[in-house]
Amino acid sequence: MAPETTQTWLILGDFNVIYRARDKNNNNLNLRLMRKFRAALNFCQLKEIHLQNRKYTWSNERRCPTLVCLDRIFCNVRWDLAFENHSLHALSSSHSDHCPVLLAHQNGLRKPTPFKFENFWTKLPHFQDVVTAAWSQPTTHTEPFHRLGHKLHITGKALRKWSRSLISDVKLKLHMAQEVILRLDIAQENRDLSDSEHRLRNKLKKRILGWAVIEKARK
Question: Would you call 130 helix, strand, or coil by DSSP?
Fold first, then answer.
């Protein structure tokens, strides 16, 4: 059953099948499944939102890897017209054999980052000092709820500023590792990685698991 043309459709996921030969880095292709997938897309009148920075999204993680574009997003014409300025980028594969994909509106309004209290802050030195100093600041408000709101605002602002100096070494290493893996992922699409690059990629993928667990425990 084809999607209704009066509705907006966005379909995404790991389809585990391709519809074009160029979506795999070798010639081991299942042409029958490719034809069926392509026929289904045509029947449903769906178009692909193509990746801007990668050719493939999955690797079997071997020394000479098989690379395939399995993670995809499709939409119909109505969705495409409703959200014209969108782009799709692949992120670092990190500890997975798939890389996540990010669909974003290019011209979307940037929303202010909401204040988020981190539970581990209370265990760090000077947390109490920052809160006490901010809460003790004078206010011109006399109505109780306004006074409370103002104090919460000032304290949150002080904690946000203080927290910028608390970007942990673990978080920094995690982001750096993800960036290196992403660059090696992209390089692997066009050439074989050297032995040292291959060892580095595998080593970072293993370490990311530990760093990610640490960061999750801090939330």
Answer: helix
